[in-house]
Each structure stands twice: as C-alpha cells, then as structure tokens.
Write a structure and sequence with these properties.
Chains A, B: It catalyses: tRNA(Pro) + L-proline + ATP = L-prolyl-tRNA(Pro) + AMP + diphosphate. The structure is a homodimer of 583-residue chains. With 583 residues, chain A is an alpha+beta fold. Chain A has 16 helices and 31 strands. In chain A, helix 1 packs across helix 12 and helix 2 runs antiparallel to helix 6. The radius of gyration of chain A is 30 Å and the shape is globular.
Chain lengths: 583, 583
C-alpha cells in the first residue's frame, strides 16, 4: 500500500470524551470515528487491525473443527420469548419493531438462533459433535457506553456454540475450544492469562476468561507466579487458614468508639491492626411459603475488617441461590436494635443466620460492633461470648499473599481486560427450546451445549492498553495495521532516496510483507510522529546522507534509537525482524 | 474439507413459500435457512459462496484504489434528518429507538454516514479523489419480502462512494468503478450485461446497472446483438420513425364499438391490426399558484395500441418533473365528457395538453375513442380531424425489433437480475450536508460524489437463476462452495478406494484447490444427488471396479456422462479443468 492511496488521518488532540488511552490513541491514529454514543465507524486504518484479528480467529476456529455460518443481526422476538430472555433481559437488549409492528431484537449474542438451527439440523447422535461459529455485528444497548471500542454498543464478536451428545463429549469440545483460544491469543502476540471463571449454577470448572494483562484493566485477576493457577476475582478461592483458632486472652468489653462507624476508623482509634476487626454485613433472602406469602430471612455475614465480600461466593451459600439483597433499615433495627456502623453478632434481638468467613472463624480476641450506637465490643471470642457461627464459608475476595488454592505458592493480583470467554452451558438453552437429538438408543435426548466468545473489536483496544507509550500505539506484528513502514526523506529532492525506497517497498511486497510506503511527501518530523502514533512496529528510514554511505536506518517501535543497516541488506534484515506469526 | 466435518444438510422438498428456483435450490441445498420474513441465516454451505463473492469484490475494489472501512449498522437519525431521508423515505427504512428513546435507523445504505466522514476527513483538494467502500449488513424493511435472498430484508451489500473535486474527475472515478465492475462480473463467470440506466434528474449517461441474464429476471433489458448498446427498459430510447406521416385515405367516422373498451378488443372487432389503434392515457399534474392554491393540469398521452407507456420517460416531460398522477374520474369526465375505455383526442370539452408518442405522431387513418360510450372514431388524421399534438415525445417502452439508438441494428430484449449499479450522484448529498473541501483557489467547494453497489447476497441467487437444471445448482468455479468433490464408493469395503480418494484429496488440497472429500459413507445415489443439488462443478468418483482397471471417473456438473481418467493422471486432469479464475 502507498500512503498517498490510503486514508491517513491523525489528530494532535484526543476527543474530550476519550477517558482511556486506547480510545484516545485509536481516535488520534484515525482508526475509529465516533458516529454516536458507543457507535463507531471502523476507519480504514482500524479495519486493517480488525481484519487481522478476524483472520487469526477464523483460521484457528476452522483448525479446531468449528464451522462458520452467519446468523442475522435482526432476529424475530419469538425465539427470544421461548427462552424467556426477551422479557428477562434488561434494556441492554435492543428491542425493535418492524413496519408491521412485529417484535424483533438486534442480536447481542445468538444462543436462541443457533439452538433453533441445531434442533432442526442435528437430529442424530451421528451428527455430533458440531461447533458453529460466526464473526458478526452485535449490539448491546449499554446504559453508559464508554471507553471507545472497549465498551461500545455496536461491536463485532466471534461467537461459537458447541453441541454434544453428553457431558463427557461436551467437556471434550470445551477443551478443544480452550486450546484453540490459547493458540489464538498466543498468535496475537499479547500478554494474557486464561483464568478460571465462575460457571454459575452449573458448577465444575468449565468456564475460563481470556484476559489481556493491562494496568488499566477493569478486572482483577488472581494468579500464582509459581504455578499455573489463575482465576478471576469472583472465582478465586480463599483457602481455610491452616492454623487453629487461638485461645482467648482478653475479656469481652463494651468499648466507646464515638463516631467511628467503619472498621478502619475503629482500628485506628484503638491502635490495633485492621485485621483484628470484624465487619458485619446484613443480607436478606425472601422466602415464599405455600400460600405465596413472602417472609424475609435475615443473614449476618462476618468478614475481617481488611477483607471484601465476594458476591458470587455469597450467592452460592445454601439458601442464597435464588438471590439476596441487603437488609432494609427496618429489618436491621428489628434484629439488631441498632443502625449500621455499630452492628455485631453479640446479643441479637431476633434470630439471624450467622455466616463467618473462614478467616473470621479462627480469630480470637476480635472487635465488632456492639449493636449500640458509638460502641464496639473488644476481646470477643467464639464459644465464650457468642455461639459458634451457623456456617463457616469462603465469603471474601482473595488478596495478594493468600496461599494459592493449588497449594503451590502465594497468590498475586494484576489487572486484566476480558476479551474472550469459554463456557460450558449444559442444557440451559436446549431444555428451554426442546433441542434434542436421537441418541444411540433411539430416544430423544437434550443437546449439551457450550458457548465461546471473542470480542473482535475489543481486542485491538485491549492490545493498546497493554502496548503504548507517550508517542502512541505499539502493535504486535500479528495485528498491526501495517507491519513495516518505509519512510523516504525528501524523495522529491533525491531520486536516489526515492529509488531505494521504491525498491525496498517492492522487495517486501513481493515477499508477502504487509508494508506501506509513505509517499505523501511529509516532512520527517510529521511523518515519524504519524507512524509512531499509528504504531507500525517496524520502520525503515531512507535519507540522502546515509544512503550515500550505503546505509539506511531501521528502528523497531520499541527501540530507543535507529540501527544503521547496509542498503543492500535491508530487505533481508527487516524480514529477519518480523515475528514468525506474521511472516 | 472433509464432509464428515462439515454441515451437509440437503432437503428433498423445497419450502412452500419458495416461489423461485434459486430460493428453492438454496434452501434444499442447505445454503440458507429462513429465520423470519426476508431474514436468513447464511448456513455453512451458503456462506462459502458469499465469502467467495466478497473476496472477488474486495480484491477488485482494492485494485481500483477504493479503500475499505466499515460503517455502523445502527445509525443515529440526525444525519438522516440532515438529508431529509429520515422523513422522506417510506417504511422500508427501519426506524428504531434506543433505551433512551432516541431515534436510529438500521442502515439500508450509507450515503449520510460516508458523507459525514468525508466532510470531516477530506478537507483539501490534495486529498482527492477518494473512494470508500464497505461490505456490510444492510436492512430494508420490504413490505413483501420474497424470493429468498433475491428480495430479503436483511442482506449484505458492497457499497462504495467516490469523492471528487469536480465533475470531470468524478466522471473519471465513475469510469474506474464501471471498469472494476466489469472485471468483477467477468470473474464471477456469469453471463451479464452492463446496461445504461436512467440517471434521474442529473442527466448524462452516468448510470449503469449490472444485470445477470436469467429468463426469470424481474427486469427487461434491451440490447443490440450487433453492437455494444444495452440499456434497461426505463432508459432505452425509442427512436423517432424515419418515415414521414402518410396522407389520409379514409374519412373520419364515429363507429359503434359496444363493450369494446380496449384497443385489442376494438382491433379485433374491426378486423384491423392493433398497431392502427391509439390508446389515450389521462394524467394530471398539480400546479401551485403564488397563493399556494393547487390547480390540476390535465394531460392526454397518446400511444399506439400495441405499445406500453414508460413512466420514467413520461416523468421527464417538461412540466412533469415534479411528479404526475392518473387523472381522477371527475377530472376525466370534466374534460372528455366520457369515462375511460372510449376516450380520445377528438372533440375535447376543456383544453388538455396532448402529447403524442413519436410513433403516433406519424400515423394516418388511426382509431381512437370517440369520447362517447361504446363508440370509437376510425380514419382519424392529424391536422384534418384534430390539431397537431402540443408535444411529440418518446413515451413508450421499446419492443424487440425497434431500431437500436446507436443506429447499428435492431433491438432485442431479454430478462435480467440487477446485482450491481454504478451511479454518478453529483452534489446531491454533499449539498444537503454541506460537505465541502478547499479547492486549489482556497475557496470551499462541494464534493462531487458517485455511489456504487453490489448485492453480495443477491449475487448467488442470480447465479442460480442463470445456472441450474432439474437436479440442482450448477456453480461457476469462481463462486462454488467447493470447486471439486471427491466421491469414494464404498470406502469402508475397499481400502484401495479409500486410499486413492485420500491421495487425490491431499494432492488437490496441496495444490490450493478448494476440494471436499465425501467421507460420510453415503450410498452412491444419495451422495451424487447431494452434490448435484449443491452444484459443485467438478466431481471425481472413485469406485472399486474402475480402480482395478487403473481408472477413476471425472464428471463436470454440466456433463451428461462421466469420463474415465487414469488414476495416476486424475490430479493433473482435474487441475486442467478448473477455470483460471479459481486456480
């Protein structure tokens, strides 16, 4: 490609609404252009990146035996009503009406449509397993779209769906996808982690997120530097402490803590570590009796003052599976005789279910609210001052330094951006839509499903969050809009420069390298600034002075300075620098 | 690809709503699956065809210097309000609202968005010309979607838009596209015609349709077998007759024609050729005076009884440009004193504008309605029986045998399916959206535009309408889902058959041929029926008996019988049969 025949449109300033660096840089580099809230045109420079991402994903999906199809963007509501999602999903599901006032949705994913296809097409166990995928435009009507392509409304997603005859086969299909995803993310040339994720009600370990590591990531990911263990924060287990509970050394005392309604304030007032305090969280679940009347069950969750509650873990407690809410002030008053800030498990007015985090269960001489305004209890001890908890469970987010659940070291935490997810679905959709096949015994049986997504347009944004500097983007070779840029300096003044640049361009083109020749005639400063902003990884600069000495300059986007290379060898030199994924 | 790892899903019966052969065959061959009215999933077999169409289009668009981008499917209404199309377009424009009740459209095309991009990006004449294109999902909410992919609601279109500094340059850009389209359609391997189309108010010859020839086509296309002339029916000019008007030989007579309200009936009753009759069409235009009051102007159009009115030509008459309508019965009665069926230009009650078709203007001794029920006038002659017409014009559709407008022979007519259109837009959109650039003289000037579409998902349907037989589809090599199918007979029973099939499959794969090996173990009859229905152009059958004689069978989908080829030579033989576009 010659730059004069392409659209290169860089900006000095990022738009005011660009909060994150990838949005700023993609806009400044002319890769995307905002059309409306969360809706972007993929400009020529950006589309080249997206196409490379698509090509890698497509190649590896095909290699893994998945079969491509394309499902409609506009989908009739009927199928969505069959699974109940038409009503259950929030306004992020864009519901529309056609000219005849019939209901449709703009697809956010395609579980319903693909399950409808499967129940028509996959009639016998002999046709299984099958995996269908598409790379297609999706729409989620986010309440607050932001961060450019990171959280847009219209986006491109690769979504795959596997269909199997039984759980064992479904798990094998899942593993095939999980492996394909590792190959895909390896090829992108990004630092990433595949982390175990919560698989909801289905259980088991068949849910993994693929997280691109970036300090600006929205997600906390947990890993063990000494082992393969990695999970997202929702999933990562905080093991039970190995030490036993120590004996009480203090008497329980009602201690004045005026105006100190948080554990941190209390610890500071009393001059003790935060880890000796216990926080009280009051939740409620609503239980329907046989007549349909609803009564609330009140739960008291106890966590160490320096720990945070993990909602996913709490949601898995027996009795919580149907959902929970925070208790109302009236409910709290009825059970504790006190308002939040000074609550605790000692001396309750009405019975509540007390659940202690594993760490809290082994504490001694601890501090908690006294159920009296401006007072805390100190020196509290299980058994002596209050009954043992009704339940001991893992209720908290892990913290750095916690032991790894695989027993192989300590956990560390870093930030990531989720760009892929593999998930075992079981029969959730096939049951709702009665998608069955004839098994070997001649009886109908529900299809076992899995679903597998990659955010095609989110990936470039995540790549930039991970790979940029003050001057702009630094693309990995595999997904760069161009792999190499050839920059002649003053080709109008020097026929030799022009000729050398053209020759190198032609040589690299002939070798199948994705090269762009900057023939725009820009001055060096503006030209270099453009390419550093756009982030093309390899640059060759051809200037009159060096050329007379038989040399040109090579510089990788990460190099601090250029390297002189003999003109005759530059083609070979550049090719040797390209990552094998591109060559 | 091995068939066992793909989805092959053929049907014996076409769905009841499949009215045309392409819809029937695409459904039966498992290429598309209907999800809703005019909304189809592109199934794996069909998507392969679509991807090949896309790839050819993309390659030739890039070769012609067009630059790919992708504009959003969901577009804010504001831009569409700028050009007025949000209000002017009918319900085929799918208007939707997001969660905040803001107006959006699902794109039917992207003139507004691309013009918005151009007015931001193309600021100087130095950046021109530019041509931007996308291959993207579109939606038109057809009142009555039908014919499968031929007239769907959701479809894929390639739309390109050129931007130029002046008309001369815009016309050059138009010609570049027109040439690229010829290359594209040549590569598809279809019989097609590029026909001149009406360019609306802009004038000139800068509008061409690309029509795939098919007996079932919706459009009549006009061409000259002896020259390059080709036009669609709207555009094709009926030349003025070269012979002068002959002198009157009959006296005008009011002749009873009871119950004969059509020219055909009158001609039959009177035993004269239909071409001696003249039909009267009464139109009206509404003229606003300075006070905004509307008065109707009544027009009488006279065409030969055997000719059809051409609405586009009529719409170009001076005074008709703002649109016309058929006159009401009241208006007809007021001017003719008679109801339709017996109208004519002789003896009008009120003045009307009489427009004679060129053919009618040279007639003598003709027959028309007498403006009296159940009576016609015979022996009518211009000048003697009524004044010369106010206007003589080309009002009619051409018919086969008419002289070609280029003077090189006679016109013929065939049917076609429009799959592409190139169109010079001028400043229609740039004016509405104030899309200007700085010209060489430093002054802002409106961008000159052209637009260029190809119906990516319509093309396969058109290809099938042109290329099929009783057994199924016959794909041209370039867009076949697979180019070659290898069919082993009883590979389970004969290791030699299996081995020979595998070896040929591997040889063709290695040569880059898009080959599928049918390893499903189907019986020969079912297997051949599947591939003939699907329409793979080249088939190699490997059976035990021939193999023992050192031979296998090759059959092109159009061949009546198979050809025996030596096993050792079959790879080379097949490759030699592939069209160069594919190899």
């Amino acid at each position: 490609m010659k730059a004069s025949q392409f659209l290169i449109s860089t900006l000095k300033e990022a738009p005011a609404d660009a909060e994150v660096v990838s949005h700023q840089l993609m806009t400044r580099a002319g890769m995307v252009k905002k059309l409306g809230a969360g809706i972007y045109t993929y400009m020529p420079m950006g589309l080249r990146v997206i196409r490379k991402v698509e090509a890698i994903v497509r190649e590896e999906m095909n290699r893994a035996g998945a079969i491509e199809m394309t499902m409609p963007v506009v989908q009739p509501a009927e199928l969505w009503q069959e699974t109940g999602r038409f009503d259950k999903m929030g306004p992020e599901l864009l519901r529309i009406k056609d000219r005849h006032e019939r209901d449709y949705v703009v697809q956010p994913t395609s579980e319903e449509v693909v399950t409808d296809i499967a129940r028509q097409e996959l009639r016998s166990y002999k046709q299984l397993p099958k995996n269908f995928y598409q790379i297609q435009t999706k729409f989620r009507d986010e309440r607050r779209p932001r961060f450019g392509l990171m959280r847009g409304r219209e986006f491109i997603m690769k979504d795959a769906y596997s269909f199997d005859r039984d759980q064992a086969s479904a798990k094998a299909s899942y593993q095939v996808m999980a492996q394909a995803y590792r190959r895909i993310f390896d090829r992108f040339g990004l630092r990433y982690r595949a982390v175990a994720a919560d698989s909801g009600a289905i259980g088991g370990d068949l849910s993994e997120e693929f997280q691109v590591i970036a300090a600006t990531g929205e997600d906390a990911i947990v890993y063990c530097p000494d082992s393969e263990y990695a999970a997202n924060m929702e999933k990562a287990e905080a093991l039970a402490p190995t030490q036993a509970r120590a004996a009480a050394t203090q008497a329980m005392a009602k201690t004045p803590t005026p105006g100190k309604a948080t554990c941190a304030d209390v610890a500071q007032l009393l001059g003790v570590p935060l880890s000796t305090t216990v926080k009280s969280l009051v939740l409620a679940t609503d239980v329907q009796d046989a007549n349909g009347a609803s009564t609330a069950r009140i739960w008291l969750l106890l966590l160490r003052g320096d720990h945070d509650m993990n909602e996913v873990k709490v949601g898995k407690l027996a009795g919580m599976e149907q959902g929970f809410r925070f208790a109302t002030l009236a409910e709290i008053d009825a059970h504790f005789g006190c308002q939040p800030g000074y609550l605790g498990p000692v001396g309750l007015r009405q019975p509540v279910t007390v659940v202690a985090d594993r760490e809290v269960a082994v504490m001694h001489d601890w501090i908690c609210g006294a159920n009296a305004p401006d007072f805390h209890m100190t020196g509290v001890n299980w058994g002596r001052d209050l009954p043992e908890p009704d339940l001991v469970a893992d209720l908290r987010n892990v913290v750095a330094g916690d032991p790894s659940p695989d027993g192989k070291g300590m956990l560390a935490i870093e930030r990531g951006i989720e760009v892929g997810h593999v998930f075992y679905l079981g029969t959730k959709y096939s049951r709702a839509m009665n998608a069955s096949f004839l098994a070997e015994d001649g009886k109908p049986q529900l299809l076992e499903m899995g679903c597998y997504g990659i955010g095609i347009t989110r990936l470039p944004a995540a790549a930039i969050e991970q790979n940029h500097d003050a001057r702009g983007i630094i693309w990995p070779d595999a997904i760069a809009p161009f792999t190499v840029v050839v920059c002649p300096i003053g080709p109008d003044r020097s026929p030799a420069v022009k000729e050398a640049a053209d020759a190198l361009y032609q040589e690299l083109l002939a070798a199948g390298v994705d090269v762009i020749l900057d023939d725009r005639g820009e001055r060096p400063g503006a030209m270099f600034a453009d390419w550093e902003l756009i982030g093309v990884p390899h640059r060759v600069t051809i200037g009159d002075k060096a050329l007379k000495e038989g040399q040109v300059e090579y510089q990788h986007r990460r190099d601090a300075a250029a390297t002189r290379v003999a003109t005759a060898e530059i083609g070979t030199f550049v090719k040797s620098r390209l990552s094998s994924a591109t060559a």
